[in-house]
Amino acid sequence: MPSSSSSSSLPIRLHGIVGHPLGHTLSPLVHNWGFRHYGIPGVYLAWPVEPGRLADFVTAVRVLGIAGVSVTIPHKTAIMPFLDVITDRSRAVGAVNTLFWRDGQLLGENTDVAGFVRPLVERGFSPASALVLGCGGAARAAVAGLRELAVPDVRVSNRTPERAEGLCRDFGVEFVPWERRWEFGGGLVVNATPLGMLGQNEGLSPMPREALGPSVVAFDLVYNPYRTQFVRDAAAAGAQVIVGLEMFFWQAVEQFRLWTGRTLPRDEVWELLRTELEG
Ligand code: NAP
Fold this sequence. Notes:
Shape: globular
Radius of gyration: 20 Å
Oligomer: single chain
Distance between the termini: 48 Å
Bound molecules: NADP nicotinamide-adenine-dinucleotide phosphate
Strand order of the largest sheet: 2-1-3-5-6-4
């Protein structure tokens, strides 16, 4: 009879996403596809973990040797003290969305920054000015990315002014009152609010149509639906658009690279994601 140790020595590498509650996520689709594609003995699971159990979760990551973790709301900042190393990007954003191992140490990275920057770099687009709408985690990743790209004029607008104070102070960016956001003349406009998202915010846009035109590049971080109201309005006004799925795609590519050293094939994974969203 085989001993029980034979099953525990199976080289299956565990990965997954930790959050609470865990709604629908595209991450298992992408990463499990990647493991199959490269013949890597890995699996990506979903781990709903309550805030009070986060320390236990990180202990489990260490004890079980879990190879990679995506971190989502509400743990992105709370998990930082439990890690061995926080990367510069995570420190700048003040949040971690990826755990990975290097030389026996558990690191926290923020791949949302890479996910945000890549679609701009791919287009060779280096805006002179940018307006970020919202001040949560996605907005912080966007502003950190704009700083990396050395965009000279970065502004932030938020419905609740006092909530944007920390972001504006940390990155030294100007605050624009929410009711004056439409005065932004031209450049990159980033939607880092949930306006437009599937559900109660679907069909809403963070920017009045009149403020959009050919001098604007509209980057919506919302990725479900694939084409949001903001993206539709911007395209109709002659603006260039970048859909949120691009950011999601590139942050997932970066996670997979950190965990496996492999680069997900662009066309196939993009098609997989787009089909999942658009049917
Ligand atoms: P968050 O931390 O909850 O921040 C939400 C922000 O949106 C706050 O600034 C909030 O303003 C604002 N907001 C919420 N409802 C609003 C409304 N009705 N009108 C005006 N402003 C409103 O969220 P987050 O984690 O930063 O995520 C924001 C969006 O980015 C989500 O849709 C998320 O799915 C998306 N996202 C996409 C990616 C990607 O890979 N594409 C990655 C991360 C996040 P107040 O302070 O006034 O409440």
